[in-house]
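for the writeup, i need someone to sanity check this before i put it in the appendix. the sequnce is what the collaborator sent (i think, or maybe the updated version? ugh). structure was predicted straight from it, no edits. if anything looks off just tell me and ill rerun, i have time this weekend
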Amino acid sequence: PRPEVRPPPNGWYAILYVCREWRHVALSTPQLWTCISPARHEFVRHALVHSGQLPLTIPSCGPDGSASAYYPLLRELPRVRLIHFHLAPQHHHFFAKVESILDLEAPMLEELSVSGTVGKTEIPVVSKLGMAHLATLRLQSVSLSILKSLVRPSLTVLDLYATGIKPHDLV
């Protein structure tokens, strides 16, 4: 009888199912595991283990999936290099809960993107992050008060999209 063949998962990590040698190489190469999209809790857990202590990139973070996939990632903020938060007013409860369980220091964070329709309210978590090395800030659909809460002396790039903020507002 033929052995049951399990379909490979989506994404680059399908190489784990090619052969034993490829699996071993992939699992022992931490650089492959440093870009983590929190789509599935199981993948996040494995990626955090296999990435070792290397800096992380989180291309999308917001409560659009299982919240259990986000908490382990956000606990790793001290080694996050890039993160994109997608926020909406109805998600503030999620980030308020996250804020209460985290140490909010992100000393390695170099690039932060925030998008969504957050309106005039403060952004929980994001505006309180310790981001001493933040160089790039990309904001979409946020208010002037939110922008001011995120600006750091280390910034070299500031991109604003659909904010309604005029250059003279920044002075």
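Helices lie at 20-27, 41-50, 67-74, 92-101, 144-150. The first helix runs from residue 20 to 27.
thx in advance!!
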